[in-house]
Amino acid sequence: MSETLRAATFLDKGGTGKTTTVAHLGVALDRLGRDVLLIDLAGKQADLAKNFGVWDEYRARIEEEDDWPNISTVFREQWGRIAGKLGDEEAVGNMIFETGEGPDLIPAHPGLDGLDTELNDIEETERRYSRLDSFVNEYIEPMDYDFVFFDLPGSTNNVSYNGLWSARNVVVPVEAGPFEARQAGRLRDDLRRISESFGVDLSLSMLILNKTDSRTRLSEEFTEEYEDEYPEVVAPTQVPRSQAVRNSANRGETLFASNASTGTAQRAREAFMENAEELLERL
C-alpha cells in the first residue's frame, strides 16, 4: 500500500448513512489538514454529488453527453487507451469536481449500473476485483491526495468488491438495531473470508453508531451490545439523529457548511470531527 490512506464505507444494506458518513468524514479530514478525494461508486443516483450541490452541473454534462470519461470508464479494458489518448491529467481531471467544502469528488455515473454484469464475465478473480485498484494506483496516487474515500453500493457485488480490494479499510455506519448488528457481524466474517481467499488484507477499521437517540432505552441497549461485540472498532463518538443532517443535504451541503445551531447538529459535527481524528490514528 502507498502513503495515501484509503477507506470505504460499506454494509450490505441501504439507508444506514454511508453517503452521509463519507461526506462528513471527508470534510472533517480536510479540516484536519488532509487533501481528500471522495469517489462515489454507490450507483447512478450520485448522492454524493447532490450532497455537495454539484449534481446539477454534473447532470447537465450527462445530458449534453459531455460526461466522458467517467468513473465507470476506469473499470473497462479500454481505459488505458483512453488515458493514453487524452493524457493522464485530462482523463482523470475531467472526472473530478471541487465540492466547495474542501474535498474533491469523482461522482457516480449511470454507467455503473451495468458494470456488475460486465465484470462478472471476467473469469480471473484478481483481474475482476483489481480494476479500481489499478486505476487508483496508477492515476490517483500521483495526484498526491492524503486520503481517498470510497462510497460503495449498499449490496455485495463486483463493484463493491473492487472498492474493498482497493480501500482495504472499511468504515461501517450502523443504526442501533438487531438487523444491522447481524449485518455488521456478517461483514466482519466476509472480510476475513475475502482476505484469506484472495490474499489481501481487509480490515474492519471503524464501526460508527449512527442516528442514535440516547433518549430511548432500546437504543441504549443496542449501543451496549455493539460496544461489547466490537470493542476494538466502535468509533469513539456516536452520531446523533438530527433532522439538520437531512436538511443540509437537501440544500446541497454538509452540516459543516450549514448554520444549523440545534444541539443535535452541533453534537453531530463534533462526532464527525472526533471520529475522523480517530480514523487517521487507526489507519
TrEMBL record:
Which stretches make up the AAA domain?
12-197
Q: Which Pfam families does the annotation name? A: AAA_31
Q: Where is the composition biased (Polar residues)?
A: 242-265
Q: Where is this region: Disordered?
A: 242-266
For this protein, the record's InterPro entries field holds:
AAA_dom, DNA_Partitioning_ATPase, P-loop_NTPase
Protein name as catalogued: ParA family protein
Q: Which Gene3D superfamilies match?
A: P-loop containing nucleotide triphosphate hydrolases
Q: Which CDD domains match?
A: ParAB_family
